[in-house]
Predict the structure.
Amino acid sequence: MRKFMTLAMIGLLAACKPTAEKAPVDADPVAPPVPVAKADGPNAATTAVSLDGEGLRFIDKTSGKTSLLAFGVPRAQAETALANVAGREDDRSTNAECGAGMMEFTRYDAMTLNFQDGKFAGWFLGNEPGADSYSTMNGIAVGTTRAKAKESVTIIDVDDSTLGEEFSIGTGDRVIGGMFAAPGDAATIDALFAGANCFFR
């Protein structure tokens, strides 16, 4: 009898326990928030960073004077220069299997600095938060359409590229590469890069 009463009490307690609420079947999943670019370095208010085929060019917003952070400078110098504008780096990484040889990387929001043998070797700007902080001296940036870019530069398409709609602008040592998001004049630039990069072609 006692065993029967115990089982009955367990059954009653289970029946009284509230069931977990189920989300409606048609409820939309909540998208994670997009991270906001920092751009909080000590010189962010007074200095702009321009994309250059020879490195990165720093521009005094008041005087307009520029100074080139050239490929080949020590890693610490390059990291300090960009951190003074972009803020602290997001992460560092290494890839030993790059087509150009082993490379190390330091990322600041959308901008990644590339290093080989401890020297600044290249940069890559992706279509991510913070990309709008960078452009070339003639205004080419991530998000610029092909039609708009053609007004100020000559675009050379890279035929049969494994990277997609690849192109280049500039000549000699000042070449900047890039990728459009799609074919056609309305397509926007999805990435820009210069120097040595970790591409697998």
About this structure: The CA atoms of residues 145 and 188 lie 4 Å apart. Confidence is low (pLDDT under 50) at residues 1-28. The longest strand covers residues 119-126.
